[in-house]
Amino acid sequence: MSFFLHKSNFLLRTIYPEFWWKIDEPAEPTIYLTFDDGPIPDVTEFVLEQLDKYAAQATFFCIGDNVRKHRDILYQVLEGGHMVGNHTYNHLNGWKTDDAVYLENIQKCQEQLGVETDLFRPPYGRIKKTQVAQVMENYSVIMWDVLTGDFDQSQPADVCLRKTIQYTEPGSIVVFHDSLKAWPTMRYVLPRMLAHFADRGFSFRAVPQPVYAGY
Q1: Out of 33, 56, 93, 134, which could bridge 51 as a Cys pair, Cβ 3.0 to 4.6 Å?
Q2: Does pTM top 0.90 for this prediction?
Q3: What is the pLDDT of residues 115-146, one digit of tens each?
Q4: Binning pLDDT at 50, 70 and 90, where does residue 26 land?
Q5: Domain boundaries, given as residue ranges, for the chain
Q6: Where is the NodB homology domain (predicted)?
């Protein structure tokens, strides 16, 4: 079984206070849904269908190479009123990647997106301090309050749902994955999670960002 923290802890937030972990608002209870690793056919399209049922907005942190291969799916994301963020071109682990290569990979992803975005999420949540300083010249680094763990194929889907509901609260940035690996669990958890919180008066929004250009 993979080891991961469903809830980002105080230590992580203390080490990187400049990152976005949660969005505190005094208004109506809101959850900020995010989806990593797409866009891909079927899986991303399923996510869009589920979001549409609840008039929910989300942020999709896209892998540049997937955008290159499935640009029509990216257009569906944008046409649905959702936001996009940069997730590198090749899903690079910053801890294992030379800084120059990492930054070039981010730029390559941005070129594929064709949409101005100031949101970046490091794959695996792993990024060096030296990389942070340079990335934050152009992007806000968006982490998360709740990691669903939908990618963990050893975790039963009902457990994933229960823990996601347990740890999510107003202002939470929640991570799902629109990937083939996460697909079996995500397609069970996402619609039930949306229904649970919608019934309790929550709304679902994209992480705030300016979008300057069309596609």
Answers
A1: 56
A2: yes
A3: 989 999 999 999 999 999 999 999 999 999 99
A4: low
A5: 28-205
A6: 29-205
Site of tokens 């990216």: 74
Q: How far apart are CA 115 and CA 84, in angstroms?
A: 8
For residue 3, give Cα distances in angstroms to 16, 147, 152, 153, 175: 21, 12, 9, 12, 16
Output the six-digit token pair for 184. Answer: 């079996």
| CB of 110 closer than 8 Å to CB of 117 | yes
**CATH says 28-205 is which class?**
alpha beta
